[in-house]
Amino acid sequence: MRFDLEVIPHWIKPGSRVLDLGCGDGELLQKLQNDKQVNGLGIEIDEEQITACIGKGLNIVEQDLNKGLANFQDDSFDIVVMAHALQTLHDPHVVIDEMLRVGKECIVTFPNFAHWSCRLHLNTKGRMPVSKFMPYSWYDTPNIHFCTVKDFEVLCAENAIKVLSSTVVSHDSSESFLGALLPNLFGVTAVYHISR
């Protein structure tokens, strides 16, 4: 399991109502149901991933996040999670607003495109980096908005979003001293727990 997905359960109370946006194959949702006894619902658009979720016995809705969350009422969930999908959305700020409308609290994870290795690669090679962590070329990547830790914090400040907790994960899938000290430079993946 990706380390950002291992961090998320620490911020979720047992028995919570959880909405997992872009839930993929349901790995996180299944862990939350098994370990935290959450009442969970996943949203996914990819048919193969939906089939995997159904095979695990998870509640899943096929839905395009770019079309919003109008089918959910205000405060329908205790926690709304969106792991590694923010950068793929057409209007990520609109989806974050919708997350905060339907959930009392939210958890968002995203790749930090200001990590030192990305900066070095761009500076020395003059090309967008391709790595095990981000294995796409610039022309076939699902990532359409490249966000950094600082960018996300500015978005939160401009939109009166409270950051309850945050951490970054390094290449070796752990939290590090340098990541805590300089998250925008040493964090590969950012993990934010937010609310209004």
TrEMBL record:
* SUPFAM superfamilies for the chain: S-adenosyl-L-methionine-dependent methyltransferases (SSF53335)
Gene3D superfamilies the record matches: Vaccinia Virus protein VP39 (3.40.50.150)
Q: Which domain of life is it from?
A: Bacteria
Q: What is this protein called?
A: Methionine biosynthesis protein MetW
Source species: Oceanicoccus sagamiensis
